[in-house]
Amino acid sequence: MRRILIMGATSAIAEAVAREFARRGDALVLVGRDAQRLQAIAGDLKLRGAAQVEVKVLDARDVESYPALLDGAAQSLGGLDTALIAHGTLSDQAQCQSDVGRMLDEFSINALSVMALCTHLANRFEAQGHGTIAVISSVAGDRGRQSNYVYGSAKAAVTAFTSGLRQRLHGKGVRVVTIKPGFVDTPMTAAIKKGPLWASPPAVGKSIAQAMQRGTPVLYTPWFWWGIMAIIKSIPEFVFCKLQL
Ligand SMILES: NC(=O)c1ccc[n+]([C@@H]2O[C@H](COP(=O)([O-])OP(=O)(O)OC[C@H]3O[C@@H](n4cnc5c(N)ncnc54)[C@H](OP(=O)(O)O)[C@@H]3O)[C@@H](O)[C@H]2O)c1
To answer: Do 114 and 178 touch, CB atoms closer than 8 A?
Structure first.
């Protein structure tokens, strides 16, 4: 049985991953802003087989509270060996371009809060000599595009940060998993027109749970996004500048 903390546990993707954990009989601490929704998810996960489910209400921007959050989670579950960081907001690119404060706020929630939590988890897991830290980044972080480069650059920061963290913790019993979903049909993307490249939260959730179990360093999900992003990254700047992406 693993003892797992999920930050951003009301996320549709995180909930799908949590269902996989529950089926395996793991113990969970769900962290998020919406107490009622967290309680509803906790009840469902218990019915699906979770050994224990606790709920902690916290805004991810409240980074000062992270050490107490981790202490409390470890105390509730009798230890902590796995974490999934899933919270995020799909930044409004146009608003971020006209309002620097908004842009900094978006970068803070999507990158800085994630990096802060990763740092606390890394130090804790390094000291105990084992653990898995999984972070949901995005294919959007592989190359900045005019339509969403504020969100994309925050995810790029998360991708680079977790890459370095993985190297730092190599050989210390701690695995770091960087997750790069493509388009997933969740509340975050409700306003975007869907097409053949879109995946469902259960499909993506299953691949994330598997990657966390195996300690896969970088997961593109669905897998074909590896190829799509390899092509996008290879386009020369002078061509890329002319594209409407
Ligand atoms: N959907 C996609 O196509 C896609 C693609 C690539 C990567 N991702 C990433 O996948 C992750 C999960 O997103 P999703 O698609 O599952 O969307 P979602 O269902 O809208 O989930 C977003 C989650 O982030 C939480 N959140 C936002 N700001 C927060 C804050 N300040 N403090 C605590 N929680 C906060 C939300 O909490 P509330 O319920 O309280 O609002 C919600 O649980 C995100 O990191 C997202 O960037 C998504």
So the answer is: no
